[in-house]
């Protein structure tokens, strides 16, 4: 349900991508919205012929299911996803593409790598929950400071192989995806970013937070 901000996100994204040397395709995954998200996205898609914008559906609920659906539609050499709230600056795409072209298999934005900063931090309760979540994920994705920042890009063949092994469909999806990339021998690079907390997140600290912790515990158990 992103009708309130998706049109502006798409406008900014298309304007930014139009200045880059790459050919780009933006995929909007409509994961069961009940507002005008899909129709607004289609209007935005029809308004440009410089960057390919498409809208696809995903009948299976959950962030992980939606991201999986989007990534598997791609035939581009470099693929990825970022959150609709643009908490991570679009300019992060330039060093991301450079790192992938230099040999990285996955490049992820990080709010906790050296050099990262918070323009507007999350509320204290979210930060405390995030700190505990990172502690639990260290053994699953060693060497990675921030598995949950919503800006991740990959070499397509690596991520589509890894994603076929991912079973998590909720907000812990990122953890399992990165773990599978590492298990396949993939090199993950973290890029520190100036991150901004944006109000209106669909993440519910209790409902989604508990489900994410439960999923991580399950992943830790299966990894033994």
DSSP, total strands: 8
Task: Identify the overall geometry.
Answer: globular
Main sheet makeup = 4 strands, mixed
Indicate the percent of residues in helices. 40-55%
Question: What is the overall number of helices?
Answer: 8
Q: Uncertain runs with pLDDT below 50, 5 residues or more?
A: none
The radius of gyration over CA amounts to: 17 Å
SSE succession: HEHEHEHEEHEHHEEH
* Percent of residues in β-strands: 15-25%
**Coarse structural class:** alpha/beta
Terminal Cα separation, in Å? 38 Å
Average pLDDT level: 88
Major β-sheet strand ordering = 3-6-4-7
Question: Overview of this structure, please?
Answer:
The structure is a single chain. With 224 residues, the protein is α/β, with parallel strands linked by helices. Helices cover 40% and strands 17% of the residues. The chain contains 8 helices and 8 strands, in the order αβαβαβαββαβααββα. It has helices at residues 6-17, 37-46, 63-72, 93-101, 124-137, 156-163, 173-183, 207-222; strands at 25-30, 52-57, 78-82, 106-110, 117-120, 151-155, 188-192, 194-196. The strands form 3 sheets. It has a 4-stranded mixed β-sheet with strand order 3-6-4-7, sandwiched between helices. A two-stranded parallel sheet has the order 1-2. Helix 2 (37-46) links the parallel strand 1 and strand 2 (52-57). The longest helix is centred in the C-terminal third of the chain and has 16 residues, at 207-222. It is globular and about 45 Å long. It starts with 5 loop residues before the first helix and ends with a helix. The relative contact order is 0.16. The mean pLDDT is 88.
